[in-house]
Amino acid sequence: MSIMEYNGGSVIAMVGKECVAIACDLRLGNQALGISSKFEKIFPVTDKLYVGLPGLATDVTTLKELFRYRVNMYTIKEEREIEPDTFAHLVSSTLYERRFGPYFIEPVMAGISTTPGGKVKPFIAATDLIGCLNFAKDFVVAGTASSKLFGVAEGLWEPDLEPEDLFETISQTMLNAVDRDAYSGWGTMVYVITKDKVIQRTLKGRMD
Prior knowledge:
Helix content is about 30%, strand content about 30%.
């Protein structure tokens, strides 16, 4: 068994029209043994940027605090909020520093940035456990249900989805994919990020 599958869990991020969405399941397990149904894997970085951390649960907690520290240091030094692409490279370099004894986490990032002309630019990215970045224009997935998430997302995702349609798409993708994976599930947390607000919803899932 891979150490990446020890605690289970999956995350997906999707791009819409001037919005992005990121979702995670809520299960924490010890292999097939369920421990908690309230283990969130998505954390806010700024008001318009979120990071999902699927993988080994102890490293989730460690990296959450490490990223919070490094983002706060950046904000103090630069006197501005960190941009999504800058944060992606911060994540990449943080993981690559530990490449010979890596954190067993595959981060997924989703956020929006505003260009100088006022245009909203959606941003999603993911990395592997040593920080190799993967930028995408449609969706990125990580975790134990990633192969199922890919399959369902390929069938459901469309370009330029409005926020409510994006919420419906990512929710259906997550709920259907984790039903086919023994290590993920037990509910879903979804964040839809637009230029005006962040919509947060908790969905009930199968508990078996």
